[in-house]
């Protein structure tokens, strides 16, 4: 499933596409919200791995403006819950992810992104 926790790790890997290939941009995204158990320690452990600006920009692109633009140094429970919602409860079910550099399209169907490349696109 494409959740923002996963999306925050994905970049384009098409042949020759090595710069400005993150984050992939959503197009025609259909979002579904699904509750997930809140684990504040898990969210705190993710913080060093998250590209904050990319996460905030992508969440805004998908209609969620709940995260502050700058990553706070201290995370209270309310902000951890907000981050949990954005990372784990927003599911992109249908649509596309598009590379901002080479415009390669990665389709999403039934919540599953197709990250496979054709033979001529492989680096």
From TrEMBL:
It comes from the Eukaryota. CDD domains: Trm112-like. Transmembrane segments: none annotated. GO terms for molecular function: protein heterodimerization activity. Pfam families: Trm112p (PF03966). One of its GO terms (biological process) is tRNA methylation. Belongs to the TRM112 family. Interacts with TRM9. This is Trm112p-domain-containing protein. It comes from Pleurotus ostreatus.
